[in-house]
What we know:
Blueprint: H1 18-33, E1 40-45, H2 52-65, E2 70-74, H3 82-85, H4 95-99, H5 105-108, E3 109-111, E4 117-120, H6 129-134, H7 136-148, E5 151-155, H8 164-169, E6 174-180, H9 186-198, E7 202-209, E8 221-229, E9 234-237
Parallel strand pairs: 1-5, 1-6, 2-4, 2-5, 6-7
Antiparallel strand pairs: 3-4, 7-8, 8-9
Amino acid sequence: MECRNQQLVLEQIGNDHYFYNEAIKTLRTNIQFCGSGIQAVMFTSSLPDEGKSDTTFSLAQSFGSIGKRVLLIDADIRKSVVAVRHGIRGKVNGLSQYLSGQKTMEEIIYPTNVENMDLVLAGPYSPNPAELLEDKLFENLIEEARKQYDYILVDTPPMGNLIDGAIVASKCDGAVLVIESGGVSYRLVQKVKSQLERSGCRLLGAVLSKTGGERSGKYYNRYYKKYYDKKYEKYKEYEEAKR
């Protein structure tokens, strides 16, 4: 699998907030602690605008900064924000075109100006994204990417009312749930958590986004890695990035 496309120059690729960057580093470290079997990781949320796309992008950038080769896949075919948020203009190929047979795998992978990070954009809107993501072609993309990259990070649609994320989860090694502080109900988060577990994907933990400091110009997140103690049937907090 070789990139045939010219480099995409992405805008808004940095974050000057110290605590946010430290939280992303902690998230990166905790994912590494999950073991060598965790290579393809999906990021989802319960509702739109909870911060999953920013978190995924920042994590990809963080992995790249320590020399890890990363492929960021925007699988939110319904309502992607990546291209607009990072100033991508002009005609570019995307995931929906590959999954519908219009483009090859090599034609949708773009090198970027972010160190060690390549990007697959969502592509044009499709009326049947769930069916496209279920296609063998998506699984082939993930499997081929495993041979070329240290990590594959997949940004998926919110799972509160859509099945797309659960389909992607079944192709990945682990999932991270991004939760907006005070922005989503406990019941809905539990519903999404159950969907992820039924997919067979390992739930690595959660990122708590948009905590108190954001309104004063700061943005924090917290990462929890939980493991299951079969003997006592408890979850134990592993580590937390906080102010």
